[in-house]
Design brief:
The protein is mostly helical. 50% of the residues lie in helices and 9% in strands. A hairpin with an 8-residue loop joins β3 and β4. 31% of the residues are buried.
Amino acid sequence: MSGVNWVFTPDTEFELDALAAFVNTTPGLGASRAEDLGSIAQALDFYRTWQWTGTRPATAGDLADLHAVRHTLHDLWAVARRGEADLVDRVNALLRDYRALPQLARHDNFGWHIHAVPIDAPFATRVAVEAAMALVDLIRAEQTDRLKVCIAADCDSVLIDLSKNHSRKFCDTACANRTHAAAYRARKSTR
């Protein structure tokens, strides 16, 4: 396809971005640094924002399951730094534990893509498995170095670097601007 600028297929890139956004709902991470999945309303907002289909989170138990999955997925950034073999083990465990069974699906504005759990699976299960499936593509392409943590001094948010040259360093524009402004002020003060 001429003119395509994807690093991965569009559904994989979308899922990788959703994975980072999901992890960044953790208290201390993301733009708000607050608990961004502290209520069913917030979980439903995440569900809608990232265009999930199937079972919606509806109970305190669903929320607790999302928090547990979020913790597991957040750990994958540290695991990736230890090496590809450890990441492969963790991703395989997610796929095995949640009984992933990949199947082709097409809905909404997405072309053919893979769903790996039934549409009626709990939302936390779908989040875990869809994240694992996207990470499978990252691992197969030997691109696990795209799992990064923001380099801003006051930020630990995670990011997926989907730039062609692996150059993304900040989780968002605010962190980049804050860091660049601080560097500018430091240069000015030393003159």
